[in-house]
Amino acid sequence: MADPSHIASRPAPGLIASNLRRMALSEHLVLWLCLVYFAVMAPFVPGFASPENLVNLFVALLPLFLVALGQTFVLITGGIDLSVTSIIALTSVVGAGVMNGHTGWLAGHPLAGLAAVLVMIALGAGIGALNGLAVTGLRMPAFIVTLTGMMFFSGLAVWFTQSKNIGNLPASFNRLGGNPWLAGAIAGIVGIFAHRMLTRSLFGRWLFATGHNARAAFISGVPVRGTTVVAYVVSGFCAALAAVLYTGQAETGSPVLGQRLLLDVIGAVVLGGTSLFGGRGRVLWTLCGVLFFKLVDNSLNLLNLSIFTITMVKGGVILFAALLDAARHRLTGRNA
Fold this sequence. Notes:
The chain is an all-alpha fold. It has a domain at 62-259. It has helices at residues 4-9, 13-25, 29-41, 51-76, 84-99, 112-137, 142-161, 171-178, 180-200, 202-212, 214-219, 224-250, 262-271, 283-302, 307-335. It is globular.
């Protein structure tokens, strides 16, 4: 005969399922993952918790956060922007072409750096607008539009430079990416503004309504097409601003800058809680997702693991993010 006290001590299956559901839907899940991962890896990874490495981690996190921030806006609408890495590369080389001291269009001019930043941001936002107009006006799938955009603009960046990097950039421009406090201020201001747009503005409500159900939002009076186009413009703007920081950090314009970032960007945003199905996302969630990805990447690099091993681990993290997003989507749909 079974011992009643032993039976009573077993956790009820319903209680376990409830706890797992609560954990999957928790807004703080990825933050806890970051803290647990850091605590577990710090004793085993040389220099992982050193002040110098933490500063380097912070500097590397900022431009990725900006790209992921723009991707968050697009994913909330139910779309996706695969062209962000090509925007980074193209704006980097065009900006370097404007301001470099050898062949730059404004070589030696005191405002060359500022002009280059403005050109880069305008170009990124313009590409974002083209993506948005193609998705809404031509009714093409966002995946196809931005995938072909990624191929075209990546090739254009290589053609523009003939596969060569462009150096000799103004010191004032390089400080934008190399100075952690200045780069942090830029990312912080954009992040706070984006947070207020999503949580306190009419545009933010339109954005979530479009992602939840575009047809119902349109019937309710939401300008679905305009909202979608603006989301892609924001994505292009953020990618270009990230290119400013990346180019400043590298002190050179490169046609392959950001080439391997795409899965990191999408994985970080989805792991943070922004849904691939649309209608869900927050700036703080995206920041936590980016932080987790950079912690993983930084720790594996400090262990001197091969690029193939690091890629496999990142692939596993992205798969986990996709499975978690699917689980959240089912749970929220069931609770609706």
